[in-house]
Design brief:
Helix content: 40-55%
Strand content: 5-15%
Order of helices and strands: HHEEHEEHEEHEHHEEHEH
Distance between the termini: 148 Å
Radius of gyration: 46 Å
Strand order of the largest sheet: 6-5-7
Structural class: mainly alpha
Number of strands: 10
Number of helices: 9
């Protein structure tokens, strides 16, 4: 949650009839681009804005100082609301960047560069005059108009550089932030549990007066407390699944080893049986050959005997 969320939103000034006469650049710096703890301007390095679990935002340097030990800690107190928060990964660098604030900072730097030098259009070499907040691209007037009428991008938010700093809510809205439908300049910062609806600060003290209204950060703490036991259960189930998976892998490995051994033994047995069968076949072939040879010898003897007998019979006919 950026520094502006800790104060009444800009739209609240209209209801108190106190007109904000600050320049857009100064108002943007004070409300969105300044750390609410140390007052230093946000940047992309040492003073980068970080989103905390309680919903607040502080620069990385403040978080390091509050966490101690150069930012290494398991738990710490939020420097804005003083709630106890868990430090993810054991270091403040693991807190997620505040993407909305970084988008505003990026656009702010781009507008400053646009004032000093020519920022070219992405479609031509002309000077860019507007920016699409969804595509994050710069366009000249002609291409900005074309981008606004094409069916695929006609719902995008194209803002001129001269107006973009005066409407930071458009940047946040394009980045997914939600604002009150009745007070377009007021972010949804509270939860009405009576109506089960989000509300801005103005609606919280008017439309939801007398209801049970809590800050989003406090609601997040309640939800987190409910989620923590579930997360522990999920982690335990994940551990059990990993153990069962490992056991299944071990069983599969043992079965594979047994299968390979059985396959090897079967091949050895089959090869032995095949070798024995081949040897028996050769032995039988040899016996058949021996019998054939013996039969041929006997047959020759019988043929010779019959020839001699026939010869004697013929000679007996010739000489009676």
């Amino acid at each position: 949650m950026c520094a502006a969320i800790l104060q009444f939103p800009p739209g609240f000034a209209d209801y108190s009839k106190n007109k904000d006469i600050r320049a857009p650049e100064l108002r943007l710096k004070e409300e969105y681009l300044t750390c609410g703890v140390c007052g230093h301007a946000y940047d992309f390095n040492k003073y980068a804005p970080r989103q905390l679990p309680c919903g607040d935002t502080a620069c990385l340097d403040c978080l390091r100082q509050f966490a101690g030990r150069n930012g290494k800690a398991e738990e710490m107190y939020c420097p804005v609301c003083d709630r106890s928060i868990v430090v993810p990964g054991g270091h403040v660098c693991c807190f997620l960047p505040n993407s909305g604030t970084l988008k505003i900072l990026e656009v702010f730097k781009l507008v400053e560069a646009h004032k000093k030098e020519v920022v070219p259009c992405i479609g031509c070499d002309e000077r860019s005059e507007a920016r699409c907040l969804e595509c994050q691209e710069n366009y000249c007037e002609e291409h900005a108009h074309f981008h606004s009428i094409v069916s695929a991008t006609k719902h995008h938010t194209v803002v001129k550089f001269t107006d973009i700093l005066a409407e930071p809510q458009k940047i946040l809205r394009a980045n997914g932030a939600q604002f009150c439908s009745k007070h377009p300049n007021s972010a949804l910062e509270a939860v009405c549990t009576t109506c089960n609806a989000l509300a801005c600060l103005v609606c919280a003290i008017t439309e939801h007066k007398g209801h049970h209204v809590k800050e989003i950060g406090a609601t997040m703490d309640t939800i987190q407390n409910r989620i923590n036991p579930l997360l522990q259960t999920v982690k335990q189930n994940e551990y059990d699944i990993k153990q069962n998976y490992k056991m299944a892998q071990d069983v599969d490995k043992d079965m594979n080893v047994t299968f390979q051994r059985s396959k090897r033994d079967l091949n050895i047995g089959f090869m032995g049986a095949a070798r024995g069968s081949r040897d028996r076949q050769i032995e039988l072939f040899h016996k058949v050959e021996d019998i054939q040879k013996q039969n041929q010898i006997v047959l020759k003897k019988q043929v010779g005997y019959e020839k001699d007998k026939i010869g004697f019979s013929l000679r007996g006919l010739e000489f009676p």
